[in-house]
Amino acid sequence: MRTAWACLADLCCVLIFVVIGRANHHAGGGLAGLADTAWPFLTGAVAGMLATRSWRRPVAVLPTGVGIWLCTVAIGMLLRVMSGQGTAVAFILVALAFLGLFQLGWRVAVSRTAWLRARIAG
Fold first, then answer.
1. Residues 17 and 41: beta-carbon distance below 8 Å
2. CA 120 from chain center: how many Å?
3. Distances from the Cα of 38 to the Cαs of 59, 78, 100, 116, 122, in angstroms?
């Protein structure tokens, strides 16, 4: 169950990134536009989950979180190029920063919470 929640959290981070980005750029297209922007990054995130074998340590920042984060951005950008979508340097940097903050950030928060609970209990 923990693996499913971790997977969902990472995919939600990607969707939040896409929704905010599309809203900031006043991009239309409804769900089709959202899907068109999201699929490369969602594919990258899933590839990262498989590459890091995230089911073994789904909440670990290293190597799981970092691997998923970097695969999300690298594969997402590669797929965007292959599908004729833009990949300006500024966009790559924003994607690295946002997805790094969120995909690693939730893991840090969960780890700190578990550490704090153990400390209080012990």
1. yes
2. 31
3. 23, 13, 16, 35, 43
Q: Is 99 within 8 Å of 13 (Cβ atoms)? A: yes
CA angle 102–95–22, rounded 5-degree value:
95
Q: Is the pLDDT of residue 51 over 80?
A: yes
| Burial class, 36, CB count within 10 angstroms (exposed 0-12 / middle 13-18 / buried 19+) | middle
Q: How far is 29 from 47, CA to CA, in rounded Å?
A: 26
DSSP-assigned letter for residue 57: S
Find all residues with CB under 8 Å of 44, minimum gap 6, and list them. 71, 72, 73, 74, 75, 76, 79
Closest by CA position to 37, among listed 67, 16, 8: 16
The predicted pLDDT at position 116 comes to 80
* pTM of the predicted protein model: 0.93
